[in-house]
Structures are given as C-alpha cells and as structure tokens.
Amino acid sequence: MDRYERILKLHRILKVARLPVSQQRLMDELECSRATLYRDIAFLRDGLGAPIDSHDNTSSIFYNQDEAETFELPGLWLSSSELESLMAMHQLLARSSGEVLSGALAPLRSRIERLLDEQYQGKRFPIERVRVTRALSRQIDETVFRRVASSVLERHQLKFRYRARSTGSETERTVSPQRLTHYRENWYLDAFDPDRDALRSFSLDRIVDPTVLDKTAIDVADAELDKQLASSYGIFSGPPKAWATIHFSAKAARWVAEEHWHSKQEGHFLPDGQYELRVPYSNARELLMDVLRYGPDAQIIAPVALREEAKIQLRLALSEYEA
After folding, report:
1. What's the CA angle centered on 71, arms 65 and 75, to 5 degrees?
2. Which of 188, 214, 262, 272 has a Cα at 20 to 30 A from 134?
3. What are the structural domains of the chain?
4. Cα distance between residue 256 and residue 137, in whole Å
5. What is the pLDDT of residue 292?
6. pTM strictly above 0.85
C-alpha cells in the first residue's frame, strides 16, 4: 500500500469512527510500522489540516467531532476504481430514459454529482472531462433481460430457447438460474442445467422467448459456483483442464506485465526481456482470442494442443488474405 492509499484509508477510518481508534488497529489496517503511522498522522494533520485529536497518552487518535463532519481531503482523493464506478454509474443513469426509472433514478444521479463535487474541493466536478467508454457490447432485448433477471432474483426456474453463437443451432433449455454476470460489457446468465447435470453460462443476447416457471430453482452453493465458473480463464465454465504458458515479446511485455488476465495468473520477465505468462483455462476459445490479438508479439509455448490450435487459427486467417 503506497502513501496515497494509506492517507486516504486513514482519513476514512477516522471519518466514520465513533470512538477513538487505537494506533495498533491503525498499523494493522494500514499495514505499516509505528514510525510510518506517525509520519502519516503528522502529514494528515499538519499538511492537509485534518482535525486530528488524541488522548493524553497518545495511544489512540480521533477526529474532533465538531469539525469532522465538514472536513474533506483537499483535491481529488478518489481511487481510479472508485472514480470509474461513479462515472460508469452516472453515465448508465443518464442512458436510462425509460418512464419507469427516469424519475426514480434522478435523485441518485444528483447524489453522485454532489459526491463528485464534495471530492473536488466543493467545486463543480467537470464530469465532461472524464469518460467511461463502452466497446463491443451486444444489444439485448429488454423483455428478455427483465424475465431472466426476475427468475434469478425470485428463485424460479426458467425455460427458453438458446441459439448457440458458434453453430447457429437452437436448443430448448429449462434451467435453475443462479447469477447474473456482467462481463466485458455483456450480460450472462449462470445457471444449473439439469439435462446436462452441469453449470452453464448463457449469453442473454442469444436467449429467445424466456418463460419464468412456477417451479422453485435448485440452489447451488456459492463455493461450487466460484469453483466451476470462476476458476478458469474467461466466461466459459468448468474447472481448469490445463495451464497455458505464453511468451510475449519484449515490446509487448511492457503492457502484458501490467495486465490482469486471471486471479491465479503467474508471470515473470525472462532474461531476454520477454514476459512469460501462465493462466489456467478450461475452454481455449476466449484465451486464444486474447492471445492472438497480440499477433507476432505473442507465442503459446504450452500445452502442445493449445499451441497447435493457435497455429491452425493463424493459418486459416492467412489463407483468407491469400485468397
């Protein structure tokens, strides 16, 4: 945790605390030494003007209650993820022009704007200067979305026709919905399919004529959902079948080393400046798409089957250009 994060976290702990906070608790939560804590407290008090007070024995500190309500850190102290979340929510609310939600969501949109203003020294936050763009999102039938979401929230089974994107074939499914997942700008239904006795993920834009049934959905434990749906690379379900080893050129390494591909990824720089990345996967389709977008700067080393599949994809692409 860097100094910026510690100062921000220290401020938030003291801001919400109703009782004095012990130095030991602060050291534990900030993951720092006593000397570092003293420096951070001094900077927060003397450099930023925080209303810090302490007991006579200085074993615990707190914000002066008379000033705590009005004190905020000067400048923009939102983290990148917090700013992204607020701006994404603000833009999402701006796009919600339906009659049902427009009036109900207006106060929430105003609250987000006030919160951004508060974090910007009380001045108007220039929303137009920050953009959260959407890319590669697919159009969803809103009736489909509402019915699927209702089945998930109300815990009812769902019947629908599903058009497979890869083959174009259509099958009829009756499933027990578990979760709605928003992944890479698109919505997916995670569900238990009894006909296949397995968990599956369905893209909502491929679901046709969903019907919410009166039958109660079969619940799958959260631990099992995470094991089946989150342990492998990408959106495709199933426990990992193998680990992929990919080498990226020294040029691409500067980007890949900073990217998050999977929660269990392993990576390190090689002596020649290349970067080696290892990720677990079950279905190779999405992993191959992400690796191949790096073109000649990426090479799959192992397993052999995945390497051969990548070579086939590249040959097919080259044949289209040669034709």
Report:
1. 160
2. 262
3. 3-68 (1.10.10.10), 80-129 (no CATH), 142-229 (2.30.30.530), 242-322 (3.30.70)
4. 23
5. 92
6. no
